[in-house]
Design the sequence.
């Protein structure tokens, strides 16, 4: 089974063109397309109408839950609101992957019938639905995706070999997680990214950077390639482009993604012939084929917003939390030795205790308060506090402590 109906190189090309189209539309109409990466993703799924419908349905459900339902009980705003949006959309996508039947479609014999595109794409679209309205967002996404998809269709008709997706899912050798576990990894990565920024002021290469970097830890060549491209992108944009161009906000982010995509794609095409090393042998599905293009861009963008050291530290902590936990669950379901599962679980839990320490402390206090209330319901009385002497205060210029409440 393949995830997309096109060759991985076509998917990469559509990704880069989608960024350019999204930025052109934003500059002309001041309408955003969910994110600058959304048009490319939608375009490569343009031959699968049900996939696009499922993506928009996921986005609308996530938007409705976060903006209409949850605010009745929880106050959500800013990055916390977006984090909840990402986790919800990933959960819906995971449910679709589990429940969708596979079928024969066009030149593929085994492909999911109803499943959204990408893991964070619906959340990005839902976020813009809340900002600029459902109708404007759907119109902007459709228009930008069409500008990318039409040339893609023409090229596909002229060159049928572009529809060959390469190796089937699961054929990669350096990815430690199976494709079916990617949604769980991305969900934990999104939670870790929120916790690291909220609690420790550390950025983790966006919401998905830690998950994808942790997936390739079995091949350090891949990890070093991603980090090297990220640092090169950061230096090129901040030391070069930003000195001669006005780059901020979406323009800066688009520049980061385009530069990282070009550098990474060039490296993937040249490193093999030059050094006899195939840096893309892990690309078992086209979605992972986009990883070396956008992950360095996310990392470089966070480096510019903080610094190189803290971004690498935050990404490493997020990967240390995400990869061991998901890998432990994966090994457990495949009958791995208990000691191996426990070792992986301990590493992931230890990283989680560091990342979410304030939230865990707050939850502990809440549980204790709830336990006291429940105990009082059943007739248990709290032990009175031991007698303590009254507190004292020392006034300015006073020669002795004055007990509180003595009237003196």
Sequence:
């Amino acid at each position: 089974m393949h995830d997309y109906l096109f060759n991985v190189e076509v998917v990469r090309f559509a990704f880069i063109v989608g960024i350019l189209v999204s930025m052109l539309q934003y500059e002309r109409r001041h309408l955003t397309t969910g994110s600058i990466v959304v048009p490319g993703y939608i375009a490569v799924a343009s031959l699968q109408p049900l996939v696009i419908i499922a993506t928009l349905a996921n986005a609308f459900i996530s938007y409705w839950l976060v903006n209409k339902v949850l605010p009745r009980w929880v106050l959500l705003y800013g990055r916390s609101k977006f984090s909840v949006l990402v986790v919800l959309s990933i959960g819906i996508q995971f449910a679709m992957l589990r429940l969708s039947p596979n079928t024969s479609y066009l030149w593929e014999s085994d492909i999911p019938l109803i499943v959204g595109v990408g893991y964070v794409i619906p959340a990005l679209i839902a976020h813009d639905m809340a900002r600029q309205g459902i109708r404007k967002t759907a119109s902007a996404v459709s228009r930008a995706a069409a500008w990318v998809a039409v040339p893609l269709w023409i090229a596909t008709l002229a060159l049928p070999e572009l529809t060959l997706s390469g190796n089937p899912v699961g054929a990669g050798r350096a990815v430690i997680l199976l494709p079916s576990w990617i949604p769980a990894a991305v969900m934990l990565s999104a939670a870790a990214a929120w916790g690291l920024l909220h609690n420790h002021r550390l950025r983790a290469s966006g919401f998905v950077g830690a998950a994808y970097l942790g997936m390739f830890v079995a091949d350090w060549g891949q990890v070093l390639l991603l980090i090297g491209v990220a640092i090169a992108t950061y230096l090129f944009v901040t030391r070069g482009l930003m000195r001669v161009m006005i780059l901020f906000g979406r323009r800066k982010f688009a520049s980061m993604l385009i530069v990282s995509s070009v550098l990474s794609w060039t490296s993937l095409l040249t490193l093999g012939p030059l050094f006899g090393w195939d840096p893309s042998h892990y690309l078992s599905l086209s979605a992972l084929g986009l990883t070396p293009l956008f992950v360095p861009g996310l990392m470089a963008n966070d480096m510019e917003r903080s610094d190189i050291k803290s971004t690498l530290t935050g990404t490493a902590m997020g990967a240390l939390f995400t990869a061991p936990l998901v890998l432990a669950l994966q090994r457990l379901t495949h009958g791995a030795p208990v000691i191996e599962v426990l070792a992986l679980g301990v590493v992931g839990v230890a990283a989680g205790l560091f990342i979410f320490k304030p939230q865990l402390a707050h939850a502990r206090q809440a549980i204790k308060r709830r336990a006291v209330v429940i105990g009082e319901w059943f007739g248990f009385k709290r032990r009175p506090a031991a007698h303590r002497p009254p507190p004292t205060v020392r006034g300015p210029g006073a020669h002795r402590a004055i007990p509180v409440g003595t009237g003196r």
